[in-house]
Design a protein that fits this description.
It is globular, with a radius of gyration of 20 Å. By secondary structure, the chain is α+β, with helices and mostly antiparallel strands. The mean pLDDT is 87. Helices cover 29% and strands 25% of the residues. Strands 1, 2, 3, 4, 5, 8, 9 and 10 form an 8-stranded antiparallel beta sheet that branches. It has a 3-stranded antiparallel beta sheet with strand order 14-11-17, with no helix packed on it. The chain has 7 helices and 17 strands.
Length: 322
């Protein structure tokens, strides 16, 4: 399998759901299942059912694999901190360092191998510098809006959003077999930039432009080269860069010795064809990006529709690095 990077520059603020259901609280990361759902809607808009089924079949067969979106700053590409349990080192014994490691959510691709070595006591990892390099990537914003529909008096409320620095944004990785499929996917992603991603799209949020597709075999920076090396490496552990859920016959073996975090995925179906009124899809629990496994597995795309008129696909296939 080969790998390509899609890099987004946001023109507006963004907000992504975090399952708390509160306007005053949101995240800045778009998970792979939400990305897949957005691409499904875009495919349906551009080419109807045939384009939607093409996307579903390519991803279901593992010919296209999507990661979560992840932050970047310039040519520094961040990866999730691995969910691994290790014995505390003497370096981590101070309360300041403990807080710094707890705060650490993302590690640059260039420092990732060094971080792993530090877990085994084979290298020094500067957690303070790692947190500092990410500190100005994205900043929380609060909007005050006014509800007037159905209200006897205007009712103000707060909406949490996020603004990326001018040289920062989100990227995601696609594993692929055929370059033609990446060219086709690029059309969907470019169209998605006009539609917007995340919440409050009708208020103008989530608009972005996409750089030309970056093929990692042609990496032109240290950050991209580090991504390519990690994605093509084998190891004692395999970390998923996307939310994943093993199929029933994979579950027992996949979880043996694994270190993972469970992520609740719920919400409403964003389709006017599904039902006459807005309805929730079935809640599903997946294994979050950063979860680590002894053995790779295939995962799947699951139908989480309830009583609506068409399937609702929940993407839960892993994209592993070794």
């Amino acid at each position: 399998m080969q790998y390509a990077v899609f890099k987004w520059h946001f023109l507006t603020e963004v907000r992504f759901g975090n399952n708390k259901g509160q306007l005053a609280d949101s995240g800045y990361i778009m998970h792979s299942d939400t990305l897949f759902s957005a691409l499904c809607l875009e495919a349906l808009k551009l080419g109807g059912e045939a384009e939607l089924q093409k996307l579903y079949q390519l991803c279901s067969a593992g010919k296209l694999l999507l990661s979560d979106t992840m932050p970047y700053v310039g040519e520094t590409y961040f990866l999730p901190k691995p969910i691994l349990m290790v014995a505390a080192t003497q370096q981590e014994s101070s309360s300041v360092l403990k807080k710094a490691y707890k705060k650490l959510n993302y590690i640059s691709a260039e420092q990732f191998s060094n971080y792993l070595k530090s877990l085994k006591g084979q290298a020094q990892f500067d957690v303070m510098a790692a947190n500092k390099s990410f500190a100005n990537c994205v900043q929380a914003q609060t909007r005050v809006q006014v509800a007037v529909t159905g209200q006897t008096e205007p009712l103000p409320y707060y909406v949490n959003t996020w603004r990326f620095a001018p040289n920062a944004g989100l990227y995601f990785i696609v594993g692929y077999e055929q370059e033609d499929d990446i060219a086709w996917l690029e059309q969907l992603v470019n169209s998605l930039g006009y539609s917007g991603v995340g919440g409050k799209k009708n208020s103008g949020l989530g608009k972005f432009t996409t750089e030309d597709v970056i093929y990692l075999e042609d990496a032109y920076s240290d950050g991209l080269d580090a991504l390519q090396q990690l994605l093509t490496s084998k190891g004692d552990w395999y970390m998923t860069l996307s939310g994943a859920l093993p199929q029933d016959d994979e579950l027992e073996q996949a979880l043996q010795g694994a270190a993972y975090q469970v992520l609740k995925r719920s919400g409403f179906v964003d389709s006017t064809q599904y039902a006459t009124e807005q309805r929730k899809h079935k809640t599903v629990f997946i294994l979050a990006a950063g979860s680590c496994f002894r053995q790779p597995f295939a995962g799947g795309i699951y139908d989480v529709a309830g009583s609506g008129r068409h399937p609702v696909y929940r993407y839960a296939k892993p994209l592993f690095l070794g």
